[in-house]
Amino acid sequence: MPCALSEMTDPSNAPTTAGAPAADVILSGRGIRRAFPVGERSLEILHGVDLELGRGQRVSLMGASGAGKTTLLNILGLLDRPTEGEVWLNGQPAWSLTTRERARLRNASIGFVFQFYHLLAELSALENALLPAMIALPKAAYRTSREQYEAKAVEMLERFGLGDRLKHRPGQLSGGEQQRVAIARALLLDPPLIIADEPTGNLDSTTEEQVLEILLEEQATRHAALLLVTHDKRLAQRCERMVHMEDGLIQADSALPIPT
Amino acid sequence: MYRWFLSLRYLRARRTNWIGAAGITVAVAALILILSIMSGFLQESRNHLRGNLGDLIIMPNQDSPLSGSGRVLPKTDEAAMMEIVRANPHVSGASLQMAWYGMLVPDSKSALLKHPVFGDLSLIHLVGIDVPDEYGASDLQENMQASENTGSFKVTPVADLQHPFDPPPFYRSEGAPKAGIVLGAQLAAAWNLHPGDEVELFSLGVDPITRSVEGQGCNRTFVVTGTFRSGENAMDMERVYVDRRALADMLGRTTAWSQVLVKLHDYEADKVGAVASLRSSLAEGGFVHRPSGDNASDYYRTEVRTWEDLRGNLLGAIENEKSLMGIMLSLVMVVAGFTVFAILSMMVSEKRRDIGILTALGAHPSGVMSLFLMIGCWQAFLGASLGAVLGVLGALNIDAIETKLSRWFGIQIFDRSIYLFDHIPSVIEVTGVAMIVLGAVTCTLVFAAVPAWRAARLNPIDALRFE
Which one-letter DSSP state was computed for residue B59? Predict the structure, then answer.
């Protein structure tokens, strides 16, 4: 299958499982395998995937259903342990850390945007956006810096057009509004990596465009890396790099013209 | 921070949480209420179980020779004995008693044959006393006066309290004048006896050494002069008081005493010291046995005793009932714990997606666990404190509550005529309340720990997939 390899995955400087990646690399997955037990046998979904993301890079991950996108995303997002291989995030070997250190790393370095928004139903829009700070800080520390985080969350939500929706519960918000709250939540702690799993997969085309605009604009302003899982080719083309997965392997990793 | 915040938010949002807290409230309140009432009963019963016993009872064992003295039995010289007892600095009063057993038969002898419970009532405890000494050593004088709190067995007071064995003024004897007898109020009620009625006492003398019946049985007619109510059922049912000399005369005995009742200046403070000093001074005088070192034949242990030693099994029974009640009601607490377990388990299942989100946002499994444990903690805290307040308020106002409930339901919950007290006794023990609250909180947390642990072990991937 013809593919244009980017310099990131050029075999000459391909990442190895030993040693920290270069400083301008925010995320590096090396030799990732993932197998699931099925009865007495084991079914391998990922067959040794290598993937690197530079700081501020916007990468799309495409592939048919069952190609292993979500499994890879979970491993790169530090939610699922690979059977083999290592994930370096922000210079740290994530799966060699303790559970507590890994949880802290996930909190500080990754902002998740899910297809189904995943907001807590009992909290208001503002409280949902503040959740990463509440998790990061103990009670006393949160109290002292609460105003600062609140101001930041309010500013973001207002910018996203939700100024009059701060006290609304997720059930009182539309899908697009909920996803905007989820984006604010993902960005609150200024993580260097945003992982978005089909962020517009559940939205109509008008709302999709609005949400996408916000996500891409924020990512660019903050110079955060974005790993975007999508089925939508038009959306993938707005990224500077497109990774294509098939049968648990990366089949193509192509640099695209910088989108305007 | 999120644990506090979210636990309170979940607590408020889910009404089922209040059911858990309510369960704990009921359990804690019921435990406090019941144990307070049981403590009250115990305290009241202690007062009543004492009956007409003094503080201490000296019962020399006349069956066994003094140790190391061949066949010499303990001395029976009453004057010398009382001198030793009264010389003890702890003693405020002492009374010689002659106690024996007999049968009581009302004058109308046909009643004996007709009475269906004749067998239960016939054997009675005959106690011969010296009136002034007895008044100084036991509560007999108070118990012979009519009181409001005597339930259904009313006391018929004697005509002259200073001479209780004098026949009532209206009594006319046929033949020789009869000696007076004071009956337990329950016994008098059972036989329907009133002052002026004649009763016949039967008894047998027993040789203290050979344990064989001495000669023929003896009997004598007495005239009822009044009744007493000590509060102890056995005593009020089976005991009669007569003059000590009259009893000795009827039994044909030369020694007119068998035990001494002693009253102390301060029972609670002096009981141990008084028992020890009386044991040693009476043994010195040859009235009781010395300790032999052999527990089985150590008479001295039973010769000088406190009234509590004598009634130990009855007091122990009430203590036991209290503990049993506590154990049984603790099961209510366990049921409340199960409710919390069920509610939290349900919540963990419902909140699987939230658990996944929190993990994705950087929450540690221990944080997730403490979030759910904290919800259990709130339920325990709210339930136990509300329960403690309700329980204490209930115990303080149990009488008013009982009266109201009795009126509403049209049944008498606490029948005051059965008991010796006209109120439901309750004593609030601060340490008891604290233990119950602590127990409730611990129990709830133990039950909450299981679902909380399950929440912490949830795989975030599965949890996020949960829709």
Answer: -
**Beta pairing class for B179-184 and B239-243:** antiparallel
Asked whether the predicted pLDDT for residue B366 surpasses 50, the reply is: yes
ipTM: 0.89
Q: Which residue of A has its CA nearest to B362?
A: A107
- Residues 212-251 of chain A with CB under 8 A from chain B are none
Say whether B361 and A185 touch across the interface (CB within 8 A): yes
- Residue B80 contacts residue B260 (beta carbons within 8 Å): no
3 state SS of B338: helix
SS3 assignment, position A51: strand
CA distance B11 to A38: 39
Query: Which residue in A has a C-alpha nearest to residue B351's C-alpha?
Result: A120
Q: Which residues contact residue B25 at a Cβ distance below 8 angstroms, ignoring those fewer than 6 apart? A: B382, B383, B384, B386, B387, B390
CB atoms closer than 10 angstroms to residue A56: 16
* Nearest Cβ partner for B360 among A79, A121, A123: A79
CB contact under 8 A, B9 and A107: no
Per CB-CB distance under 8 Å, the chain A contacts of B365 are 99
CA distance A105 to A95: 11
pLDDT of residue A6: 40
Which chain B residue shows the shortest CA-CA distance from A111? B361
Helix B430-457 / helix B365-396 crossing angle, nearest 10 deg: 160
Tokens of B70: 């061949």
Most confident residue range from A5-9, B93-97, B288-292, B323-327: B93-97
pLDDT score, position B416 = 67
Task: Return the minimum-mean-pLDDT range out of A115-119, B49-53, B327-331.
Answer: B49-53
Backbone angles phi, psi at A28, to 5 degrees: -140, 115
Gap between the Cα atoms of A98 and A101, Å rounded: 5
A to B CB pairs, distance under 8 Å:
70
- Tell me the average pLDDT across B189-210: 76
Task: Order the strands of the A25-38 sheet from edge to edge.
Answer: A41-54, A25-38, A84-89, A92-93
Handedness of CA B377, B378, B380, B385 (dihedral sign): positive
Q: In angstroms, what separates the C-alpha of A4 from chain B's closest C-alpha? A: 33
**SS3 for A114?**
coil
Taking the CA atoms of B1, B3, B8 and B10 in sequence, report the sign of the dihedral they define. positive
* Structure token pair of residue B330: 């603790």
pLDDT tens digits, one per residue of B227-242: 988 877 778 888 899 9
Output the CA torsion sign for B320, B325, B331, B336. negative
Write out the H or E segment, with its range, that includes residue B201: strand B198-206
For A79, the 3-state DSSP assignment is: coil
**A164, A168, A174, A175 alpha-carbon torsion, rounded to 10°:** 110
Identify whether the C-beta of residue A6 lies closer than 8 Å to the C-beta of residue A241: yes
Q: Which residue, A10, A5, A1, is CA-closest to A242?
A: A5
**pLDDT mean across residues, chain B:** 83
- State pLDDT tens for residues B125-148: 899 999 889 888 888 888 888 665
State the maximum Cα–Cα separation within chain B, in Å, rounded to a whole number: 108
Chain B positions contacting chain A at CB under 8 Å are 1-2, 4-6, 9-10, 13, 353-354, 356-367, 460-461, 464, 467
